[in-house]
UniProtKB/TrEMBL annotation, chain A:
Residues 1-25 are annotated as: Disordered. The keyword Amino-acid biosynthesis does not apply. This is Iron ABC transporter permease. It is a multi-pass membrane protein.
From TrEMBL, chain B:
Keywords: ATP-binding, Nucleotide-binding, Translocase, Transport. One of its GO terms (molecular function) is ATP binding. Pfam families: ABC_tran. InterPro entries: AAA+_ATPase, ABC_transporter-like_ATP-bd, ABC_transporter-like_CS, P-loop_NTPase. SUPFAM superfamilies: P-loop containing nucleoside triphosphate hydrolases. This is Heme ABC transporter ATP-binding protein. The keyword ATP-binding applies. SMART domains: AAA. Residues 5-238 form the ABC transporter domain. It comes from the Bacteria.
Amino acid sequence: MTTPTPPQTATPPRTPTPPRADGPARDKRPLLLAGLCAALLGFALLAAGTGAYAIPLGDILASLAHRAHLGGHALDRVPESVLWNVRLPRVVLALLVGAALGCAGALMQGVFGNPLAEPAVIGVSSGGAVGAVACIVLGLDALGSWTVTAAAFAAGLLTVGVVYAVSRSGGRTEVVTLLLTGVAVNAFCGALIGLLLFTADTAAISQVTFWQLGSLSQASWAKVLAVLPFAALGLAVAPRYARRLDLLALGERPARHLGVDVERMRIVLITVVALLTAAAVAVSGIIGFVGLVVPHLLRMLAGPGHRFLLPASAVGGALVLVAGDLAARTLAAPAELPLGVLTALIGSPFFFWLLRRTRRRQGGWA
Amino acid sequence: MTALLEAEGIGFAAGGRALLADVDLAVRAGEILALLGPNGAGKSTLLSVLAGDRRPARGEVRLDGRPLAGHKPLELARRRALLTQTHEVSFPFPAAEVVRMGRAPWAGRCSAAEDEDAVTAAMAATDCAHLARRPFTALSGGERARVALARILAQDTALLLLDEPTAALDLRHQELVLRIARERAAAGCGVVVVLHDLTLAAAHADRIALLDAGRTVAVGPTGAVLDADLLTRVYRHPVEVLAHPRGGAPIVLPERPREAD
């Protein structure tokens, strides 16, 4: 049997060409994405040149070109070493962690069907940190330099699974349930970390403090390499699910009626979220509010379509962390502010503003 | 008339309570089948079994002669659409984008222009072309219901399952929805519609299936099922069936205690 053609309607359309919902919005999306990329590049170069030892932009470009065998020239021993051993690993790590957190935030909000889902808010970051802290304190190193990342990943995955299983009903997550789940998970993980600290020596305690404050000061190429495969895999898989995430916004049942294999998609995406979050947490500690605020802001600017939102959140997250890290190490120079403290300091008031704005506009989040 | 969808001996239980028992139902191409019955009779449950959301404990549902379980999700999505009772969208997608989501099963099969035509036609038919740019989350209940219906129509399936499509709608839009159902049926679709307004069902349906406590009490042509005694028994309230002064279509009314003269 053939599918019937859409029947002619009795009521003719009101206008010859009904307005397209996303006409102007679609036009501004590529522009916005290009703007974000340009800003990211600008801040990355600025961050590479700024610090106790300033390196002019021309020298950075020359050195980059030299290493890429595209002409240019090597710098003197000191600036070359500062650029390649200190600044660039840090900038690249900030970029990767930011992209991972931004993308994970957008994915998580899509999978939970709730704009409040964010790795730190619902306790996934602290869950991942428990795994990492346990490794540090108990001195586990079965997998060498990958042990902490692996433990953070495993604990992160477990936490995402628990939160997901506990907080959902009927294809959606109520805000109250989600936040209460986050409160409980954060409290539980805090207790576990406290328990571990109670048994830890001084060196381990200072290392653990790093997790809780969140910082990129320990950046190195080894750390970049540790995050890269996870972040790259996650960032590559995420956009493939963009359209299906749009459909999931209708609810699980309607999405299934449109041919989406909801269970499978859920498992894949939750793994991706855990991958991205745990990789970020493993190298930088808990950096909150990036995954919440960045997708939110972009959704306000260009609508909720995930084909735009996922890549834009990755670029936006990278931009925020590169700029944030630059601020963290220059604002109070020569001292360095913990990056996690800075993002939370700026992110929290922004979050309040979001809550109030949403309440005014649509009577709150359902 | 060929049977598009056949349900045979359907039994379904949840939480130790039998919600459906021995339900037989066939939906033919080209007809509107109204599913009636009191609250809790199992209408929505039956609809979700027919859609393949829930697997019946007993019996079998066949679509195009093949068991539902044998259809892939995407195949099913191109053959049947279901309008749910509630319409929620998690993020403020514009109404037109929500309707366009109905085209998802046809990705790769239809050109962008065909998709756009289907979206435009569906929105025009449901009188929501003017809502295209408004965020779905900002629409009123009735507007949401019409946009959701437009999404189902844009899905362009041979089988339409509509769960109370008129519940949130004013008189004009109720008639509009059933007129659309009639147009689809005339184009060869099978339409199953859950209704609470018996007079509305009498005016538009070809056949009626009357459900009570998870069983089909009567299935047949509209005039035969809308019997005052039967309805009185099923709805546990005295019902009278009148004939419209013009045309004689049945009008179903609950009997109301009258003030003594």
